Amino acid sequence: MSELFSYASMGFRHITDLAALDHLLFLVALVAPYRLRDWRHLVLVATAFTIGHSLTLALVVTRIVTLPTTVIEFLIPVTIVAAALENLRRGGAPRIGWRRAALAGSFGLIHGAGFANFLRTMFYGPIVLPLLSFNIGIELGQLLIISATLVLFTAADKIVAVRLPAQSHRIRAATASVIVAAWALAMAAGRVPW
Fold first, then answer.
1. Is 110:69 a contact under the CB 8 Å cutoff?
2. DSSP class per residue in 79-124
3. How far apart are CA 131 and CA 56, in angstroms?
4. Better-scored residue on pLDDT, 118 or 143
5. DSSP characters over 15-29
6. 83: nearest Cα among 33, 29, 23, 44
């Protein structure tokens, strides 16, 4: 039981740590177009991200796949920019359906590879329990971050609604997406592998 808790705690800390700014920015980009009433779909999108993340972690940790770290570290902020641009392309409207979840899952494949090489050095012996526990911790951390962000965005919508009631959600979604995209673009520029 302590091994389960230890790895779950590590996964939770990994996703909630401010040093993992790229993951936090990606989650903000995922949440940006959604409102509180869309929470069920948002959980689906976040879980799809975790599934993609988990799959790549498993493939890299077991050495089935080897990926160049410099390319992955560059692609992570690129996925953040892409998610933010998707929000802007849709005018801040949430995408309800399987496409947003599929996009998040595919981006999760890239994000999972970013931490997998480090994680591989920590696993010894059987990896099923540590990997499962780590991913449970990631999912719990994501749900916490998504919930907190959704609450903050709901408050922002109410503030903006005082002046622009019909536009508040779209203005907030666009503003958050532009800020996240700019930040991630700067990160990508600093990580160009060539």
1. no
2. HHHHHHHHHHHTTT----SHHHHHHHHHHHHHHHHHHHHHHHTT--
3. 11
4. 143
5. HH-GGGHHHHHHHHH
6. 29
User: Amino acid identity, residue 179?
Assistant: I
What is d(CA 183, CA 122) in angstroms, rounded to the nearest whole number? 31
Q: How confident is the model at residue 25 (pLDDT cuts 50, 70, 90)?
A: very high
Domain ranges, residue 186: 2-190
Per residue in 69-90, pLDDT tens?
Answer: 899 999 999 999 999 999 998 7
Number of H helices, E strands in the chain: 7, 0
What is the residue-averaged pLDDT of the chain? 87
Question: Which two three-digit tokens encode residue 170?
Answer: 């779209």
DSSP string, 134-146: HHHHHHHHHHHHH
Q: What is the pTM of this model?
A: 0.88
Q: How many domains does the chain have?
A: 1
